[in-house]
């Protein structure tokens, strides 16, 4: 998912990281189910930077992408635990493994079509995967490179005659409807991986390469009609057939996605719900802190709030290249004031204090607290100062001025202020580097960026440690080409022991043993002080009086966009 996916997204930011299904499930707390028709208005804090399925990096991008992009498998669109289950999307089922989970076969459904009416074939899926290896653009989701066999010297379809006409040989078209993936190692949850947009099909004759990011060719229920600086307008795709798509309901006739980073104003307008705001919802930002108590204490308003917890983590990444001394990083972890941060965010309704990178909702979660932060949510500045003093006596003093990268938005700037105040207590000056939210993750995704601390979030692309630890901490995935923008290992951790442990965990075929390995890895990485887990995120998103069908989908930490409709 997404930086938060899928997040890494601002909420995950990351992608994050990721694609899921849509339905009318979750409308049970609404006075009536959605109807077909009308124009749904969706507010986002910044316009999605990427629409090209192979370039999706954040939770918001992944959520929006599902309007136009279907994948081999997809996540159920139901509240609760069922949302973590996958079903066939373009494929007839969730995949058929063989040879000890090293080979996976998928069969495409009948009568699935592109927006021009042409059929979707195996060649389109193969081409979509192949183009993700091109150097023409950066690809955030690492799974094709990580899992497919024979990719070391493959450079994509645009050079060398696409491997002299052979293409990527680990993706084979048995015929037009049958696809075979050969993996470099056993992957028991590859069916979940196939739900990621990096595995989405692309019709070669419609591929405009770098420009495809502005207008991808649709195989979903909507097609992109308009793409301007401030908004995206989606209208129905006449060749999408709901008989082939049992999960997407596609209620509205039109969906308008508009960027507006003024959170207090957006929240106020949604609360008043006048005019077009009655048909609107805030997709990626929680209720502004100054309105939280009003919303939670007013039954009429709280009934319109779409809320829930999910497996996302808000954290601060520590750049190990710029802060190489372990004790300097440990000092930053010990000094962090989580109470002040969460209070500025709006309180406990927005998250529980975090000690780990793998959230408690995941079976791979291990409960540990290496920095004693559970009992000291305001931090331990005395311990931090002792570590800095010890480091000074070693002749390698910790830096007293550090740069913090954030997306330049008022609410995030306010949260950054709590960090500035916190680190002043231990004699460290924080310079806040506000970056355009639309390009934030591309900027920090360049390993050559010069920020010391980086605002980040992550929502797992599926409910396992394999969707947390490798994308965020596997040093082998750090891009080496100049001007890369797809790095998600913001700490730039490249530890051979960690890398080897990641390989061992991925190769473990027994789920329960794999869960234990990911939890142990989480703790080992924490000992290296490369990230500061702050809160396990919760969502509280406001909607207008006419919006129906809202629930927080765990793959995005957002309302499931395709489940939404109007009264």
Summarize the structure in words:
The chain is of the alpha+beta class. It has a domain at 310-538: Dipeptide-binding Protein, domain 3 (Roll). Helices cover 24% and strands 19% of the residues. It has helices at 59-65, 122-131, 143-147, 160-164, 190-193, 263-272, 292-297, 299-302, 326-335, 338-345, 381-393, 410-424, 440-444, 469-473, 496-507, 511-526, and strands at 39-44, 73-75, 86-88, 96-98, 103-107, 171-173, 178-182, 222-227, 231-236, 254-259, 280-282, 305-318, 351-353, 401-407, 429-435, 453-458, 531-542, 547-548, 552-553, 558-559, 565-566. A six-stranded mixed beta sheet has the order 13-17-12-16-14-15. A five-stranded mixed beta sheet has the order 8-9-10-1-11, with helices on one face. It is globular, with a radius of gyration of 23 Å. This is ABC transporter substrate-binding protein. Residues 85-474 form the Solute-binding protein family domain. GO terms for molecular function: peptide transmembrane transporter activity.
Assign the structural class, choosing from mainly alpha, mainly beta, alpha/beta, alpha+beta, or little secondary structure: alpha+beta
Question: By CATH's scheme, which homologous superfamily of the domain at 310-538 applies?
Answer: Dipeptide-binding Protein, Domain 3
CATH architecture of the domain at 310-538: Roll
Main sheet makeup:
6 strands, mixed
CATH class membership of the domain at 310-538: Alpha Beta
Number of helices: 16
Alpha-carbon Rg, integer:
23 Å
The total beta strand count reads 21
